[in-house]
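Researcher: Can you fold this with 4'-deoxy-4'-aminopyridoxal-5'-phosphate in place?
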Amino acid sequence: SVENIPQLPPDPLFGLKARYSEDPRPNKVDLGIGAYRDNDGKPWILPSVRLAENLLQNSKEYNHEYLAISGYKAFTDAAARIILGQQSRAIAEDRLVSIQTLSGTGALHVAGKFLKDFYVSNATRDPPVIYLSKPTWANHVQIFEYLGLKTASYPYWNNETKSLDLDGFVKAIEQAPEGSVFLLHATAHNPTGLDPKPDQWLKILQAIEKGKHLALFDSAYQGFSSGSLDKDAWAVREAVDKNYSFPIIVCQSFAKNAGMYGERVGAVHVVLPNHDTALNKAVLSQLSKIIRAEISNPPAYGAKIVSLILNTPELMKQWEDDLVTMSSRISKMRQTLTAELEKLGTPGSWKHIVEQQGMFSFTGLTPAQVERLEKEHGVYLVSSGRASIAGLNEGNVKHVAKCIDEVVRT
Ligand code: PMP
């Protein structure tokens, strides 16, 4: 019988989006979901994407046929080169298995399923525990627990200093049972906007090596932190190509950096320790089985668009310009918001908003202040105090600063 199906609460983020849509106030502001908006607060189709769409529609690749189970190879190959680098040793030595997924969420799901089926913790002989930063993107917990995997958290954000708790992080890596999985945000950490500096990354990677763990990189914002694809891939490339021996999986999304949110363009890349043709084929066959059973084959349109961008030098150049357009507008909004708060003399320090990078800022606002921002002012952000800076623009940033000032003071 189907009597006892409990109704779940709405997803916090998509629930917020629904409340925002229904809000009739004309000066409402959406700082919730992590989607880029232009200076008029509108969704932005990247010029590089428009050019690629035109090219695609006039090419022989333009049809709506099925892709292969493993996806569009021109896309997955180019996607690997973007994250691992043109000079990647792992690619040159044929140690990489890549498969197309339903964006970053699908990549994490496929990686999780693969780990559950084929990776055992050396210490316990059970499927590994997936260690997530505290805090992390809320869906991380759900994606892995849905698969029956256990999750745990490692210290990351020090709320007092609003900086990285490196000692806590490294200690957690040292204390985890050998062969655990550490999920690492490749760049633009969600929700804090705080990334380790290169010397801190080295300590993290060395601890992972020592603990014989697996590094699971989640790359959802390459190009959003610095505007440079290469700079934002530094940590991943350091881990893959610098003589570490721990296993690595990279989950890659083009939702944000290509503005292809709804097209679900992504890939998972499994880096093998040695060149081993048989293992390479075995891994690909297992990943393919997961895709076949779950979605049969991945969506074609977005993959063809992104592939055209990555494989056409002029489009690539345009995309790099587009990344600078997005990241520099966000960075300008960080500066303006901070300057406005300082001008108002809003109690507290707001420097961290400028220091953080990527799409988000962990403002330090309390759940009660966030609630008042929504109810009294129509300014929407998630209860953790995370604000999507992309929702700010020249037209609303002063207003948002005033609203923040008001809820902080009273
Ligand atoms: N990882 C992180 C950290 C994210 O913030 C997101 C998107 N919010 C994703 C993965 C996946 O996004 P998508 O499935 O849209 O690619």
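Model: Folded with 4'-deoxy-4'-aminopyridoxal-5'-phosphate in place. The chain is about 45% helix and 15% strand.
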